[in-house]
Amino acid sequence: MTRPPEQRLLTEANAAATYGPDVQAASAPVKAAIAAGTVAPQGMARMNAAALPNGIPATMSETAQAVTSFGNTPLTVASGAITHTPVADAPAANVAGYMQSKTKTGGKVKGVWAIVQASATANTGLALVLPTAPWANGSLTAAQVHHVEYPNGNWHTSIWTGAAENPKYLPDAVAGTWNDDKPRLVAAFVNEQDNSVTIRHADGSISQSAPGSIDSALISEYGLVESYRFVNTAADPAVAIKILRWGLIDQTDITNLVSLGIPSYRDIGKAITGALPKNPAAMVYRPAVELATAATGSMADVDATNVKLTAVAPASGSLIVDVEAFVNLTNAATNYLWDISQSPAGGTGTGAQRVHIGTCNEVKRRRWVLSGLTPGQTYTWKLQELAASGTGGGLKAGSSNGYYLTMTAIPAN
What we know:
This protein is mainly beta. About 10% of the residues lie in helices and about 40% in strands. It has helices spanning about 5-10, 20-35, 250-255, 270-275, and strands spanning about 45-50, 70, 75-80, 80-85, 95-100, 110-115, 125-130, 145-150, 155-160, 170-175, 185-190, 195-200, 205-210, 220-230, 240-250, 280-285, 290, 300, 310, 320-330, 335-345, 355, 360-370, 380-390, 395, 405-410.
């Protein structure tokens, strides 16, 4: 059965390899209820940047709520990711970009999440914010949840007063680093009954604030993601992270979860967090010696040893495989294609896709939607390329030219 987009975030869950026993226990009834169709979260707001054209989107791509993007350097979609290019904002050094939406039903936000990606040099922080009223340029109202996490692992969670972070009810701490150019999930959830907050960090670990840390009655139907850094100088420039997907969860998403056997309302944050998908399977290739392929007239592996991705098929048997790489073509007659080979065979969805016709010197991205895979089976995909006509160039990747080649697999539904 294919579930609607609002349920996808919570559907393909396999927390055993990511979370501790307490989270697994709390999330088990949630995952079982979702699988049985007895919990149908309808309040989510969801955006998948991979499906959007370049520019500032008008709505959440999967659930249609209006979106606003603002700040010193507003967030925008570029090459399938939400990012920005920080520039100096004299006399203030803070360089920030914000993207905001609200819940589908208009109910209060109970959670905000983002799948983020950071290169080795990225240094802006991701902020997940639940404000008391919508934010706008020059009007950053108070927020009960203001969680900040940097690629180097530094993080904290606080109340935003409208002018400062005070108090930090989860003070400065360090989790695992995530500046490896792989997609990572970060999330913040409100436990309304005891006014506490649950954080799911990029490394998969979980933190919870003490009861009474916030006043959940002050939270609105709005939520936002932010990328920012206080320092941006020629000697220490800000390099932005990428936000691949993000969304909100409201009250309707967690209604009746207590009746599913969760020990207490405080464990709802753990339960939903444990039911979220694990960090997507991903590979990043940036060899010390430059990879510069020469596509020929037959489909062939780009690099059978290094350019491949392995993932376990989810319960639905459906996966999305994304590939992003720099393409350099020098012949105006070139008809250049990609494909992915799969082992073991099975299912549908692989097949050649045209990448470019003519000369090219830019990053390209293509997606395969696979279905009919065997749940629980481990699959491997290798990237292949072909110049159907006009050979002359191919992929480039390497530390000398700064180009990455990435492959990512995420559940399709």
